[in-house]
């Protein structure tokens, strides 16, 4: 499992990309997931790029952004081309977005067709650049359940449409996470790991809270201290999928306080568990 930090974890801190890279290297991460806002803000400093990042032994595992799927096709096309340039500059092969802004059950048939057509177009625009469009499992989007996510992939039917399997949000949907993993396996090329103390605190990840500097962080806990059983999930990955998906890119998506302390310890505990799995 190749572990990345998310630069979004440092969104409310006065910290440079150089300090993030130095810290990630010192704490034995393999990559960074670069937030689109950060990539945009670094565009006028082109010496920061994939080659610079490689000097720290790191790579950009994913460029995470929010494509406005239902704007005019011309506006969307230019946004996608801009992200292609940023992804190429940073050496990322994946652009993350969300499948719309409402739950799968809230779509009419015509709205579904429109959503799937837009995802097809984006995939077709990315393909000549060798880039993948990665949809994240997330509530209040079309990828809010295993069944809806499978339908989306079947209808869009593009090889470069792939899935970011956010373990917490899959659990939040009510699915059994290892069963969901097996069902969605052909599409997965990235994981997000985060945890919560209990189901009652899930609203802490609502966008209007999690992106707000003054938002609450109550209930956010380290990977192995929450309601989702990550030890069981990681052991299952290595037991049943060690030849492939167990080596996928995984981002530790921490939104809480004390970023460096929490991420450093989570990285250590995950890699120690992996070593135990490999030696078993």
TrEMBL record:
Residue span, Xylose isomerase-like TIM barrel domain: 22-255
Molecular function as annotated in GO: isomerase activity
Keyword set includes Magnesium: no
Recorded superkingdom: Bacteria
Pfam families: AP_endonuc_2
Keyword terms: Isomerase
Record has Isomerase as a keyword: yes
SUPFAM superfamilies, sorted: Xylose isomerase-like
Descriptive protein name: 3-dehydroshikimate dehydratase
């Amino acid at each position: 499992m190749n572990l990345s930090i998310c630069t979004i974890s440092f969104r409310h801190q006065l910290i440079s990309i150089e300090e993030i890279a130095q810290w990630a290297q010192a704490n034995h991460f393999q990559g960074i997931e670069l937030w689109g806002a950060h990539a945009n803000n670094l565009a006028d400093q082109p010496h920061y790029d994939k080659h610079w990042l490689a000097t720290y032994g790191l790579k950009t595992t994913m460029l995470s952004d929010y494509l406005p799927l239902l704007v005019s096709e011309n506006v969307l096309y230019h946004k996608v081309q801009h992200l292609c340039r940023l992804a190429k500059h940073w050496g990322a092969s994946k652009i993350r977005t969300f499948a719309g802004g409402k739950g799968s059950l809230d779509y009419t048939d015509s709205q579904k067709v429109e959503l799937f057509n837009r995802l097809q177009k984006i995939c077709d625009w990315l393909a000549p650049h060798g880039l993948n469009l990665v949809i994240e499992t997330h509530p209040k989007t079309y990828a809010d359940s295993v069944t809806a996510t499978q339908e989306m992939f079947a209808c869009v039917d593009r090889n470069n449409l792939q899935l970011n399997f956010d373990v917490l949000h899959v659990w939040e949907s009510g699915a059994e996470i290892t069963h969901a993993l097996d069902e969605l396996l052909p599409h997965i090329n990235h994981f997000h790991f985060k945890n919560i103390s209990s189901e009652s605190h899930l609203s802490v990840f609502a966008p209007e809270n999690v992106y707000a500097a003054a938002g609450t962080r109550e209930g956010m806990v380290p990977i192995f201290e929450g309601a989702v059983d990550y030890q069981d999930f990681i052991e299952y990955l290595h037991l049943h999928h060690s030849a492939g998906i167990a080596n996928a890119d995984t981002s530790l998506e921490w939104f809480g306080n004390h970023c460096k302390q929490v991420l450093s310890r989570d990285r250590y505990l995950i890699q120690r568990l992996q070593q135990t799995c490999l030696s078993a």
